[in-house]
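Ticket #385: bound-state structure for adenosine-5'-triphosphate.
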Amino acid sequence: MHNHPILVLGGGQLGLMMAEAAIHLGVVVDRLDTANDKLMPGTSNLRVDTTLDFLVDRYAVITAEMEHLPDSGLVNGLRLSERWMNGSAFDILPGRNQQKRLLDEIGVHNAPWKMLHAQDDMLSAHDSLGETLVVKTTRGGYDGKGQWVVSRGDDQDIPASAFGELIAEQKVSFSREVSLVGARSEDGQTLFYPLAENHHHNGILRFSIAPAMGVGKLGDSANFANLANLQSEAERMLTKIMTKLNYVGVMAMECFEVDGELMVNELALRVHNSGHWSQTGSCVSQFNLHIRALSGVRFPQEPVYQPTLMINLIGCEYHPRWHQIDGVHCYWYGKERRAHRKLGHINMTGSTSFEIQQKADALRPLLDAEHQSMLDKALALINSH
Ligand code: ATP
Ligand code: MG
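RESOLUTION: The complex was predicted; output attached.
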């Protein structure tokens, strides 16, 4: 299979970074902008007309950078072709209710939930799940969109028409959020990165720290033992999920940590924002790993990594000097600027917290006040762990 071109459904930054990573493996990755059914060659933003026959003929493997695929003739045609990877995972996981049903079925602990068929179901949901609920649309949500945090009797913001396609989750009091990004090959080999610790603001990921123990405590043996337990628990859970779905490629598992145990929040059938740190923090990035899995290129025995802080650039102005700082790696996606939009990210890798701190100090004056406060929060965590 190696060397065959791969098609990614989606014209966003995740596919772009897959195309970039594939170059190192001698693999061509092109993208399909599913908003207008145009083909985008490699990392180019050129959009050219295409046909289903051409795509099925040219690409040995078809993957995606997003789980919510549009219901278009071209995409549906591609999903029916034998080139489409992970068909059953894409049939099940994008529906939150189906995803959670699967997790329950295979015994993977996830946030307790109930289907909301009608507004009347809110009462029994509160009775069984608690006074505060997180109500989520079964499909289409991202970056906190399509979610409502509601207390009993306070559900007027939820559109009545949404009931039937909503779930209620228990509002989990977690000590922190972590995620595991890993991959499975066609012959069942798996590879996992260390857990990353993730921080959200208004439902949007703002920064990730990997490994999740924080850098300041790298030498602390009790902390190391706790994290090693969490890591093997997370790997066991994600292996179970990927094996059940016979999944090939990178998958991400977002979790809540509650009393030292993991509870799955949601799964992403793709490379994930909380894995972007691997571009500079690991010998193999998650993008490279996904392409390896799809091209039959062996994984390394284990991912050699260095502690990394990844900070997202959300809705902000581009600063040309970001690219001038030694050891500060800026990825700017070239997207149109909009409030609350992910426009890029910055990785800072170092072998000690001091090294990361030095890089952050150089970056800090080039960030706006909001991003400065995120950076400060991240550094405080790195040093406090
Ligand atoms: P993503 O951008 O990851 O696709 P999303 O919009 O699909 O996000 P979730 O990951 O389900 O949504 O939720 C976003 C964030 O909201 C979570 O990372 C967490 O901080 C918070 N959250 C979601 N569900 C719960 C819950 N049941 N209890 C507590 N907090 C929650
Ligand atoms: Mg999420």
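RESOLUTION NOTES: The pocket of adenosine-5'-triphosphate (ligand 1) is lined by residues 111, 134, 141-145, 169-172, 177, 200, 203, 254, 265-266 (CB under 6 Å).
TICKET STATUS: resolved
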